[in-house]
Amino acid sequence: xxxxxxxxxxxxxxxxxxxxxxxxxxxxxxxxxxxxxxxxxxxxxxxxxxxxxxxxxxxxxxxxxxxxxxxxxxxxxxxxxxxxxxxxxxxxxxxxxxxxxxxxxxxxxxxxxxxxxxxxxxxxxxxxxxxxxxxxxxxxxxxxxxxxxxxxxxxxxxxxxxxxxxxxxxxxxxxxxxxxxxxxxxxxxxxxxxxxxxxxxxxxxxxxxxxxxxxxxxxxxxxxxxxxxxxxxxx
Length: 235
Known about the structure:
Blueprint: E1 11-15, E2 22-23, H1 27-40, H2 56-68, H3 74-94, E3 99-100, H4 104-112, E4 117-122, H5 127-136, E5 146-147, H6 155-167, E6 179-183, H7 186-195, E7 198-202, H8 209-214, E8 219-221, H9 227-234
Parallel strand pairs: 1-4, 1-6, 4-5, 6-7, 7-8
Antiparallel strand pairs: 2-3
Helix pairs in contact: 1-3, 3-5, 6-7
């Protein structure tokens, strides 16, 4: 039997993590590079890779193609994932440049007080890595469910998985048009539109506000500091 966390929620908010809620200070890059050197003797494997909006499985595949010239086997994928998590757990806890992005603590506290809103995650991170990031930032408790890079290689599919998991927590009919997908990349906007959701783009990542605007998100913010405007949009 499903235990519903809320019975009255009418809107669902699916947040990206990196560049939207927080920055890890390079913990993921360090962990991936250490894994690639340890397993494949490939130092400085990251190079010019741009991770923004990509899932962890896609990043692993790009690193493999760049450094060993082939795709990973299923066994290699599992070994790398497990070792990545071990190293990442160390790196995220000692990262001196880790930080929540402006306005995030205040916004999440305000959203948490709204019974009509259900908060979740839609991220390309493996779930364990995602939870480690949220816990380091002290915000894990706001997000009881989500879709992750461990669920699907592509963001569109994992965003739909997050939506379905959110629906399972409700005792009323829920439609994608009642969902807001919040993120800092063009991939987030694309995934939200594919779901049929509204999109909120935030220019706190590496994608410029002007470039985000070209994808025509439903709403566009420079950052998440304007709590009152955000609440008016999602309420």
